[in-house]
C-alpha cells in the first residue's frame, strides 16, 4: 500500500488519529529524511517560526489559521511538541506528516521534551498508552526524536535553537550522523561553542570558550560515553542579566552567561540574532540583550491555566522580524479537571471517576448554577472512601 | 450543637475568585494568569533570586475570621523564604555535578571561578502561610482531628490552587500548591511544597491548617518528608511499565515517603 500523506494530513486536520501502522511507516520514512539533515540546517526567509506547542493541538490548528497553511507558508518549529497538553500524539503526527510531505518547507528542531526520559514523566508516554493501548507509538516517535536537527540558521543571520538542553554536545555525537561534526566545527570552531542550553528562567545558553583542539578532545570523549551518561556538558548554561561573562551555576553543573557572551558569539559567527523558544512568558514573546536574543512561545494559556498569550515569529526576506501574537483557540476544548489531573501534577488516575461523576463540578467550585438547595456538593456516585482527591488528608 | 447542623453558608463566585462564607469565616481562592515579564523582573529584583518558570504570583488562597485573624497563601512570600545563605547552593547538586566538574577540569575551564550568587535552586521553602492577627504558637495539647476528617461529610467547598512550578532545568520539579475543603463542621487546608530532583531525592513539606467551627483554635501542623530518588522510584508498581508519571504525582510520592519531623502550632481566635 502506498502511503498517502495528503490523506493523512487531512484526517489529522479532521482530528482523527492515524493507525499505528501508518505512524510506524511515517516515522521510518521521516528518519531516513532527517538522517541526511545536518545538525545546523541552513534555510532562507521568509519563514514563520513557532515555539513550544506542548500537545496543544487546537492551538496548533489556530497557528495554521493565523500563519497560513503548508506549503504556502514555510515553517520552522523550535521543539517541545509534546507533553503537558492533551494532544501530543495529534501534534507529533501532523508535524511529522508535514515534514515528510514538504521537507524543504518545514523544519523541525529538537526540544528538551523530545526525549524518552522527559516524556515518560510529563504525559506523552501516558497519552500514547491511552490512545493506542500500547507503547509502540511512543517508541516510534521517540526514536524519531533522535534524528531531529538541533539548530537552524536563517539567511546566515539568525541562529535558531530550542534553548533547552536538547542541544548538547552529547546528543550531537550520539546521533551517529558523522558529517555533523564538521558542520559543528565550522560554525563554532573559534572561541565560543554554543551548546545545550538549558534554562527555564532565562533564555538560551552558551558555553565558555574552548579551543579547537580541546573541543575535539571533548567530542571524542563524548562519543565513548554511554547514553545514560549525565547531561554533564561543558556547554550548557543559563544567561544571567546581572553579569557580562560566564559564571558557575548554583546547580553544581553548567554556567550562566551574560550579555557580552551573546555579543561575542554573534560577532564571531557573523550573525546578528539568536532566536529560541523554551521559556514561558506571559506576553508570548520576549526580546533581550539589545535586540540580540529573542524568545518565541507558541502555547497560549499553557497547561490550560497559565493565562498567557502566545506568538509566532514571521521572518521576512529582508530579515525583518514580526511577532504575530495570539490567544488560546476559541474552539480549544478545555479538558475536564479529571483529564488534567492525569497529565499534570497532583494527579490521581481517572479510573476513580469511571462513572464520570463529579470531579469537574467539584473542582470549579460548587457555586453558580450547580448550587443545590442545600448548597452541598453532592458526592453522588463518588465513593467518598475512595475519593482521595476531595477527601485529602 | 444545633448551630452546626443548620449551617448556613454562601458560596462566592466572582470573576477569578471562588470561595465560601461560613460561620464567621470567609474563604477566597483567587486564580489568574502567570506574572508578566515586568512583574517577574520586579519580583526577581526584590527577592534576589530567579523566579520559577511558572509563577502564579497573583494567585492566593485566604481565610479570614471576623475577629481579624487572617491567613493567606501566596507564591512570592513563599519564595522570599528560599535559602540564600552562602551555603545554600551546596546542599543539593544535580546528579551529574561531580562528572561535570571533572570534565570541566579537562577542558581547561577552571579559570571561570566566578560562582553566581548562591541560592537554593530547588526552591525549597518552609513557608506556612502569611498570618495577620493572632500568631501561631507551638503546642502539644492540640492536634488535627484526623478521625473527623476521615468522615465522608459533604464538602461545601473544594479548591486547588497552584502557586508556582518549576522543572529545575530538566532536573526534576518543584511545585507549591494549596488545597482546601470545607465541611459543615470544619475545614482543612493543605499547603504542599513538592520537590523531585532526578536521580537525587524527593522532598515534601506539608502545612496543614485545621479548624473546627465553634472552637477558638486554628491548628497548623508542619511536616517534612524526604527520601532518595532511587528508593522511591523502585516503589513504582511493575504494572506501570515505563510510565513514570507517578513521580510527578505528589499524593503517590507522599504515600511512599517516611515522615521525618512534624510540628504542631495553634493560633487562638479572639
Automatic annotation (TrEMBL), chain A:
Coiled coil: none
Catalytic activity reported: O-phospho-L-threonyl-[protein] + H2O = L-threonyl-[protein] + phosphate
A Pfam family this chain is assigned to: Metallophos
The keyword Transferase appears for this protein: no
A GO molecular-function annotation: metal ion binding
PROSITE patterns (alphabetical): SER_THR_PHOSPHATASE
Keyword S-adenosyl-L-methionine: no
Entry keyword set: Hydrolase, Manganese, Metal-binding
Active site positions, chain numbering: 113 (proton donor/acceptor)
Protein name stated in the entry: Serine/threonine-protein phosphatase
Lineage of producing organism: Eukaryota, Fungi, Fungi incertae sedis, Mucoromycota, Mortierellomycotina
Gene: PPG1
UniProtKB/TrEMBL annotation, chain B:
InterPro entries: Phosphatase_reg/MetRdx (IPR051330), TIP41-like (IPR007303)
Cellular component, GO annotation: cytosol
Biological processes, Gene Ontology terms: TOR signaling
Residue ranges of coiled coil: none
UniProt record similarity statement: Belongs to the TIP41 family.
Name of this chain's protein: Type 2a phosphatase activator tip41
Amino acid at each position: 500500500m502506498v502511503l498517502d500523506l495528503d490523506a493523512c494530513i487531512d484526517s489529522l486536520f479532521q482530528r482523527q488519529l492515524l493507525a499505528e501502522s501508518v505512524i510506524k511507516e511515517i516515522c521510518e520514512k521521516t528518519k531516513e529524511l532527517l538522517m541526511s539533515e545536518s545538525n545546523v540546517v541552513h534555510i532562507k526567509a521568509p519563514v514563520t517560526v513557532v515555539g513550544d506547542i506542548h500537545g496543544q493541538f487546537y492551538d496548533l490548528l489556530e497557528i495554521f489559521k493565523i500563519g497560513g497553511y503548508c506549503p504556502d507558508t514555510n515553517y520552522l518549529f523550535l521543539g517541545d511538541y509534546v507533553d503537558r497538553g492533551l494532544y501530543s500524539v495529534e501534534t507529533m503526527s501532523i508535524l511529522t506528516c508535514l515534514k515528510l510531505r514538504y521537507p524543504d518547507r518545514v523544519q523541525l528542531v529538537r526540544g528538551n521534551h523530545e526525549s524518552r526520559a522527559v516524556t515518560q514523566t510529563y504525559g506523552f508516554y501516558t497519552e500514547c498508552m491511552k490512545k493506542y493501548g500500547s507503547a509502540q507509538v511512543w517508541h516510534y516517535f521517540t526514536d524519531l526524536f533522535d534524528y531531529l536537527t538541533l539548530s537552524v540558521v536563517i539567511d546566515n543571520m539568525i541562529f535558531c535553537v530550542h534553548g533547552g538542553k536538547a542541544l548538547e554536545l552529547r546528543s550531537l555525537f550520539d546521533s551517529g550522523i558523522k558529517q555533523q561534526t564538521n558542520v559543528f566545527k565550522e560554525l563554532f570552531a573559534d572561541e565560543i561553542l554554543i551548546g545545550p542550553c538549558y534554562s527555564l528562567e532565562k533564555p538560551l545558553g552558551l558555553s565558555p570558550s574552548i579551543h579547537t583542539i580541546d573541543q575535539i578532545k571533548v567530542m571524542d570523549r563524548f562519543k565513548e560515553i554511554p547514553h545514560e551518561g549525565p547531561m554533564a556538558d561543558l556547554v550548557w548554561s543559563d544567561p544571567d542579566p546581572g553579569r557580562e561573562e560566564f559564571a558557575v551555576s548554583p546547580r553544581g553543573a553548567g554556567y550562566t552567561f551574560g550579555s557580552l557572551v551573546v555579543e561575542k558569539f554573534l560577532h564571531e559567527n557573523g550573525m546578528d540574532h539568536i532566536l529560541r523558544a523554551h521559556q514561558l512568558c506571559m506576553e508570548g514573546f520576549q526580546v533581550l540583550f539589545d535586540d540580540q536574543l529573542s524568545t518565541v512561545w507558541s502555547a497560549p494559556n499553557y497547561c490550560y491555566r497559565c493565562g498567557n498569550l502566545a506568538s509566532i515569529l514571521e521572518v521576512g526576506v529582508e530579515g525583518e522580524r514580526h511577532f504575530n501574537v495570539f490567544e488560546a483557540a476559541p474552539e480549544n476544548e478545555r479538558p475536564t479537571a479529571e483529564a488534567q489531573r492525569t497529565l499534570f501534577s497532583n494527579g490521581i488516575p481517572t479510573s476513580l471517576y469511571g462513572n464520570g461523576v463529579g470531579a469537574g463540578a467539584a473542582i470549579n467550585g460548587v457555586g453558580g448554577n450547580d448550587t443545590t438547595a442545600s448548597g452541598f456538593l453532592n458526592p453522588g456516585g463518588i465513593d467518598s472512601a475512595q475519593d482521595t482527591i476531595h477527601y485529602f488528608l | 450543637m444545633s448551630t452546626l447542623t443548620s449551617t448556613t453558608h454562601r458560596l462566592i463566585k466572582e470573576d477569578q475568585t471562588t470561595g465560601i462564607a461560613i460561620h464567621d469565616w470567609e474563604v477566597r481562592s483567587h486564580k489568574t494568569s502567570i506574572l508578566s515579564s515586568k512583574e517577574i523582573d520586579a519580583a526577581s529584583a526584590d527577592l534576589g533570586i530567579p523566579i520559577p518558570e511558572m509563577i502564579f504570583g497573583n494567585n492566593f488562597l485566604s481565610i479570614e475570621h471576623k475577629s481579624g485573624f487572617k491567613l493567606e497563601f501566596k507564591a512570592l512570600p513563599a519564595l522570599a523564604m528560599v535559602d540564600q545563605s552562602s551555603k545554600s547552593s551546596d546542599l543539593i547538586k544535580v546528579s551529574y555535578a561531580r562528572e561535570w566538574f571533572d570534565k570541566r577540569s579537562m577542558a581547561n575551564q577552571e579559570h571561570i571561578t566566578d560562582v553566581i550568587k548562591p541560592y537554593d535552586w530547588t526552591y525549597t521553602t518552609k513557608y506556612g502561610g502569611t498570618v495577620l492577627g493572632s500568631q501561631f504558637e507551638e503546642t502539644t495539647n492540640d492536634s488535627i482531628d484526623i478521625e473527623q476528617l476521615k468522615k465522608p461529610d459533604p464538602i461545601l467547598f473544594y479548591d486547588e490552587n497552584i502557586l508556582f512550578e518549576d522543572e529545575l532545568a530538566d532536573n526534576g520539579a518543584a511545585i507549591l500548591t494549596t488545597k482546601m475543603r470545607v465541611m459543615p463542621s470544619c475545614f482543612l487546608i493543605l499547603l504542599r511544597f513538592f520537590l523531585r530532583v532526578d536521580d537525587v531525592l524527593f522532598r515534601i513539606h506539608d502545612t496543614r491548617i485545621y479548624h473546627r467551627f465553634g472552637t477558638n483554635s486554628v491548628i497548623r501542623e508542619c511536616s517534612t518528608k524526604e527520601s532518595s530518588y532511587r528508593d522511591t522510584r523502585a516503589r513504582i508498581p511493575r504494572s506501570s511499565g515505563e510510565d513514570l508519571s507517578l513521580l510527578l504525582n505528589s499524593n503517590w510520592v507522599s504515600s511512599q515517603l517516611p515522615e521525618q519531623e512534624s510540628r504542631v502550632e495553634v493560633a487562638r481566635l479572639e
